[in-house]
């Protein structure tokens, strides 16, 4: 996805710099005001003993971060959240990549537009509505079970509702379009003659996929996986509704700190620990990520 | 010279103006959704009688309510506050003292509830006792024919995977404290409580968060029994016609009291007092309980006005039989955090 290093940069005079500042200024000002400032405030909150409002005593402390390392359950939940993110990203790849391949390489013209629309349309509906629709599908004697019972008479109960798989199903559905779109873009740029060349040199279809298509599509796959992994590890709405008793993750605990117990400092500290964890993961995988893209 | 009749006309005119315009305030009420004050008929009657408009805002937890009070000073006139939080709100300066003498219907409030220590701070009353009830559980009468009489049944393996539980740290700890005979507002043996809560793992089908959610889960047959509030049970059973029965366990139940308070610098204090008076009145209560289903009124005359056999009359008789009826009270901040920690630990244990 990165620009090639060889893009030549035209010489810029001072007037160019000024116009660049004028053009970029509003966007960066907007980002500073709407993203960086609140984030900085939250970062500050994470070092306080209590929410800094009138009538409350507060002082700066590391105790919110210490709590994470003292209480084992926070780490258990962190691990669960990371696992959920990885699993959802994996399933999105397994389901989304073939779909993107067919869209990019096999189908042409109006059909492609129509099929694209089918991928995008669920994206336009509210996430909450999508998740509640899933509750109707997954619940005991719901749409899915009735369909399976009709297909295979005597089919027992799946009992998917309020389980970990239910959370994965809901999240995969929510984030699948990211994977399809990013993979589609990188697959489309692959020159068909490369595939033809490989085939003419005797490569099997599987070898072509492994040696030609997958490496060239890697930037899209990585971008899709990152776009999915990061929001999923902090998700709280889908686990709450679909996961039931098995739907406790770090995201739901952070939400509890903000909404249920008014402990913003701890919630903020947990959020930044999650962010730190994501950054560490990306740093560790940096060589792979760079090579991939 | 002004003739007497002309003067009379002006005075009357001024009074009428006063009644219809000068005091026509827009009252902002903060409450749980669907909890009495926002009943359409009640608002219409109140608006007709007083000329004030009533606008509602809602919260989903007491902490959210407190957050709203903190972040929107001078925005609300009337707030429904659980008595366990009234002192905290008063200490933080979020709500103002109320003189019950200004509220005519307060005269017939149950003396014990009106003067409940949880509703006052430093000798001043900060909340007018409104309604009270208990937290216990309700059974699905289609799944269970013989109503149980003990809290223990929630832990009975017979109902594994069939229990609905409210995802609330304080309430969960209080149930365990009640069962193990501890002080529900400051339990001392957290190991015992943790053990009890851990034992719920095979039992719980899912967590519920709001009355609406509870009704949906019950209606779709997800629960055989679920923890619940008595006032909500009256609504779900009566108004929504769900096949449920509220259980008063012999060990007792968690009692709670809701008061009506006014925010500090409430924009329309006069109208707020009128609204509180309206809410305490027997007329409102009997209609609310009859048509929708309500908790028990703190107003003695209002309860007396209920027809015989009413849910709340029967409940009051049942509650006289139980071993303990501890009221939810203010909880120390450190205690609250400990309760939350135990509950989060429990929920993490549920994942394994």
Automatic annotation (TrEMBL), chain A:
GO CC, alphabetical: plasma membrane
Domain of life: Bacteria
Residues passing through the membrane, by range: 21-45, 84-103, 115-135, 147-172, 212-233, 264-285
This protein's record includes keyword Cell membrane: yes
Keyword Membrane found: yes
Subcellular location(s) per record: Cell membrane
GO process terms (BP): transmembrane transport
Topological category with respect to the lipid bilayer: Multi-pass membrane protein
Principal location listed in the UniProt entry: membrane
InterPro entries reported in the protein's UniProt record: MetI-like, MetI-like_sf
CDD domains, per database record: TM_PBP2
PROSITE patterns: ABC_TM1
PANTHER family: INNER MEMBRANE ABC TRANSPORTER PERMEASE PROTEIN YDCU-RELATED, INNER MEMBRANE ABC TRANSPORTER PERMEASE PROTEIN YDCU-RELATED-RELATED
Family classification: Belongs to the binding-protein-dependent transport system permease family. CysTW subfamily.
Protein name per the record: Peptide ABC transporter permease
From TrEMBL, chain B:
Keyword Transmembrane helix (UniProt): no
GO process terms (BP): polyamine transport
Record keywords, A-Z: Periplasm, Signal, Transport
Subcellular location, record wording: Periplasm
A GO molecular-function descriptor: polyamine binding
Primary localization class, coarse: periplasm
Domain of life: Bacteria
GO cellular component, one term: periplasmic space
Protein name per UniProt: Spermidine/putrescine ABC transporter substrate-binding protein
Source organism (scientific name): Halomonas salipaludis
């Amino acid at each position: 996805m990165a620009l090639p290093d060889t893009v030549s940069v035209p010489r810029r005079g001072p007037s160019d710099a000024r116009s660049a500042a004028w053009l970029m200024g509003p966007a960066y000002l907007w980002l500073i005001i709407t993203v960086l400032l609140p984030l900085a405030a939250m970062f500050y909150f994470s070092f306080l003993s209590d929410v800094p409002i009138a009538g409350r005593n507060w002082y700066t402390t590391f105790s919110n971060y210490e709590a994470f390392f003292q209480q084992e359950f926070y780490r258990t939940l962190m691990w669960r959240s990371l696992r959920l993110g990885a699993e959802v990203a994996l399933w999105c790849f397994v389901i989304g990549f073939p779909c993107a391949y067919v869209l990019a390489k096999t189908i042409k013209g109006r059909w492609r537009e129509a099929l694209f629309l089918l991928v995008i349309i669920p994206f336009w509906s509210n996430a909450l509505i999508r998740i509640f629709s899933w509750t109707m599908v997954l619940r005991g004697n719901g749409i899915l079970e009735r369909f399976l019972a009709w297909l295979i008479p005597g089919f027992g109960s799946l009992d998917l509702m309020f389980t970990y798989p239910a959370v994965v199903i809901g999240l995969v559905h929510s984030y699948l379009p990211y994977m399809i779109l990013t993979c589609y873009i990188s697959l489309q740029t692959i020159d068909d003659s490369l595939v033809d060349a490989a085939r003419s040199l005797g490569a099997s279809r599987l070898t072509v996929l492994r040696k030609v298509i997958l490496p060239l599509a890697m930037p899209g796959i990585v971008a899709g996986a990152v776009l999915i992994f990061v929001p999923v590890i902090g998700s709280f709405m889908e686990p709450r509704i679909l996961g039931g008793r098995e739907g406790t993750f770090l995201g739901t605990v952070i939400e509890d700190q903000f909404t249920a117990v008014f402990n913003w400092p701890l919630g903020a500290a947990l959020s930044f620990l999650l962010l730190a964890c994501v950054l560490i993961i990306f740093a560790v995988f940096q060589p792979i990520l760079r090579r991939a893209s | 010279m002004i003739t007497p009749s002309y003067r009379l006309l002006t005075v009357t005119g001024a009074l009428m103006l006063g009644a219809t315009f000068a005091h026509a305030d827009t009252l902002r009420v903060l409450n749980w959704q669907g909890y009495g004050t926002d009943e359409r008929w009640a608002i219409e009657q109140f608006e007709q009688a007083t000329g004030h408009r009533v606008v509602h805002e809602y919260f989903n937890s007491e902490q959210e309510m407190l957050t709203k009070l903190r972040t929107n000073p001078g925005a609300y006139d009337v707030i429904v506050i659980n008595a366990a939080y009234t002192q905290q709100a008063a200490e933080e300066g979020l709500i103002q003292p109320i003189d019950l003498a200004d509220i005519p219907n307060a005269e017939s409030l149950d003396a014990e509830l009106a003067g409940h220590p949880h509703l006052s701070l430093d000798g001043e009353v900060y909340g007018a006792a409104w309604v009270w009830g208990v937290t216990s559980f309700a059974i699905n009468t289609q799944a269970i024919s013989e109503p149980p009489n003990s809290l223990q049944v929630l832990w009975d393996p017979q109902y594994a995977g069939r229990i609905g539980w409210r995802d609330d740290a304080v309430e969960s700890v209080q149930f365990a404290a009640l069962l193990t005979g501890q002080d529900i507002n400051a339990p001392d043996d957290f190991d015992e409580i943790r053990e009890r809560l851990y034992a719920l793992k095979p039992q719980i089908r899912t967590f519920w968060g709001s009355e609406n959610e509870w009704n949906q889960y019950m209606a779709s047959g997800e629960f055989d029994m679920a923890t619940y509030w008595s006032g909500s049970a009256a609504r779900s059973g009566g108004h929504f016609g769900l096949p449920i029965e509220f259980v008063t366990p012999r060990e007792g139940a968690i009692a709670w009291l809701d008061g009506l308070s006014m925010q500090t610098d409430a924009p329309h204090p006069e109208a707020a007092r009128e609204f509180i008076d309206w809410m305490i009145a027997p007329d409102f209560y009997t209609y609310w309980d009859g048509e929708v289903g309500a908790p028990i009124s703190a107003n003695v005359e209002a309860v007396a006005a209920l027809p015989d056999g009413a849910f709340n009359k029967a409940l009051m008789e049942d509650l006289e039989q139980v071993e303990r009826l501890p009221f939810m009270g203010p909880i120390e901040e450190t205690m609250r955090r400990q309760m939350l920690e135990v509950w989060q630990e429990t929920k993490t244990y549920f994942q394994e």
